[in-house]
Amino acid sequence: MGASGSKPDRAVQDLPDDEHYFGLENFGNTCYCNSVLQTLYFCRPFRERVLAYGARLQAAAAASKQQLPENMLTCLAELFLQVSGQKRKCGYISPRRFVGRVKSDNALFSSYMHQDAHEFLNWLLNEISEVLEKEERAAQAAKRRSSREGSRSSSRSSSRAASPTKQARSTTKAAAGGGGGGGGSSGGGGMHARSPSLQMLSQAAAKAAAHHNRPVRTWVHDLFQGKLVNETRCLQCETVTSREEDFYDLSLEIDQNCSLTSCLRNFSSTETLDAEDKFHCDKCGCLQEAQKRMRLAQLPPVLCLHLKRFKYIESMGRLKKLMHRVTFPWELKMINTTDDCPDADSAYELFAVVVHMGAHPNHGHYVALVRTPSGQWVCFDDEQVNAVTESQVQSVFGHTQDWHPMREDQQGPHADHGYILMYQRVQQQAGSGAAAATTGRAAAVAAAAAAASGQPPPAAQQHLQF
Fold this sequence. Notes:
Its EC number is 3.4.19.12. This is Ubiquitin carboxyl-terminal hydrolase. The chain is of the alpha+beta class. The chain has a domain at 10-115 and 131-136. 40% of the residues lie in helices and 23% in strands. It has 13 helices and 20 strands. It has helices at 10-13, 31-41, 44-64, 72-84, 96-105, 117-161, 164-179, 183-194, 198-213, 219-224, 260-267, 390-394, 434-453, and strands at residues 21-24, 90-93, 226-234, 240-247, 250-252, 258-259, 271-273, 279-281, 286-288, 290-298, 302-307, 310-313, 318-321, 326-327, 331-333, 347-357, 365-371, 377-381, 384-388, 416-425. Strands 5, 11, 15, 16, 17, 18, 19 and 20 form an eight-stranded mixed beta sheet that branches. A four-stranded antiparallel beta sheet has the order 4-3-10-7, with no helix packed on it. The chain has a two-stranded parallel ribbon with strand order 1-2. A hairpin with a 5-residue loop joins β3 and β4. α2 crosses α6 (117-161) and α3 packs across α4 (72-84). It is globular, with a radius of gyration of 30 Å. The model is unreliable at 1-5, 164-193 and 431-463 (pLDDT under 50).
């Protein structure tokens, strides 16, 4: 844990002046929150939208001279504005109001127990999305009310504008229609024809309900949400059943001495459903053996990958941290996409890593490694901010052999592991970026070769020092 009075690393002071590097105070167990906040702040498109939201709130509050209601997004915007508005380049601030809101909105995070950073990230993105959805629905409802009131006002104006002669003609026609044989019945029918029927009212109500329940897409979805296709093929009739699922992140199983690419390949590997796991085929009308796989149908601009380092061991009756070595590249190309996936050839660049330090799921510490726009890596360890090298980032791949600590709360260089990997889509331009792409691919190849040989590259032998 960083001391509140500590000074930022001198190397951070030398970084470009167009960025702010501020640590966050830890309130006992909030390193999980601080590490996620730092990765989101250095996710440029996310930060820009949060700051724009905060600026609009400030303008609205100034115009109305009233304090606006507080929610998770308003607290996040206030925190981001506080960081971006600092005159100094380095330092630390206290996210007290934000953390207080987190604890009041979710009882899970109100205790002083060790929390899970991945769980918090998912919850936070969903909370922000819900706030934006509610605001959009309220705006749409206000717009519909305004439209209806405008229509009624226009209708009343038209009625007042009708001439006495025209009104008399209408009255005469109505009287004439009611005077003939069966005219009374005919006239009544005309009145009912002009009134909304029960069926029309029912249809209008159903349409309004459907409109209200229609999913609202927010900028959180635009940035983080991708789409999976779950394909199941019946081995009897060969019918393929597809089901789409949305995701904010991909949770990947890991093995010792593996690469991120192999984890992604295993994620989309074909699984056979047989014995007690048979698939009910609608065409066959019964349980059948089948094969299923998951593929990516739509890739998000910001790709969040969660390495499943915490596994429940039935014989132990509890969770255990997997100390496996998992290499991850600076640049990533997705391999498990559908044939019609847009941007399937897109390249992603690593910009943040949430690191879990410790030997047990219920103990330890979280820090964030983020890549600045200038290409420098910085470690945010609560209040402390330090520049780190690429080789130090590689040290969180893990060790080639599983480390078995003497105590569950023991920490050490072999207990530091990448837990959440954040990649951002690279906007490739014709005639540029080729060298960077080549360098990224070379790093990926080197990392994969090292994993295959079981030997870490020399650079990876340096460890993070906190």
